[in-house]
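Here is one chain, start to finish.
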Amino acid sequence: MVASPAVDGPPPPTPSATEALPPDPPAYVYAASDIRPRQRREIELCERAAQFDWLYTGTAFAGFIGSIAMNTQVLKHSETIGVRMLGPTSIGLFWGAFLSGGYLSLPKCDPTWAYGPPPEGAIRAHWPLATAITLLATVTAPAMDYIFLGPVKLDWEVSERTARVFVGMAGGLVGSLIPYVLPPRPWAARKEIERIRVGEVAGGPFVSYGFAF
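Its structure:
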């Protein structure tokens, strides 16, 4: 058996610590004008957000009609002031939920346009329109109560009639905020798309967002 000859020469260079590391994964970057859905998850969410949520809006409207019927047929004729006050409260709640929920149920995405904060930062705020809808619901809720209430009973005190106005306004205010806590599908899907676009970046920090209109 013939032994293999020894190989003369310097040993191979030892890789540095930087060269020994695996290559970095591709970063999740996009151009400011790239507004279409890019990932499979974004595409799925966009399909969900592209359809009007009839169930959510229809449920709020059905609750509004039901609260009117309950107010005029039952609550109005109660001998207890507290029970009678449930009428404007329920009407205001469902009226506000119908207005805000109807807006949030509108399609919020398109296969060629899925809004998300651009790389340089968010440039659009949702709170002005949300505030306008909330004010509209707050102001018009007492009118919804009195329009469908019918003749006011003569034994009602002026203080009770005045209280019905403010109770209805409070109901409209709270009801208009409920869809932001329990959002319809289009709005929830859109906020999820925005969270993905400002979320975890491969090899970088994690940015989260809180409650926002």
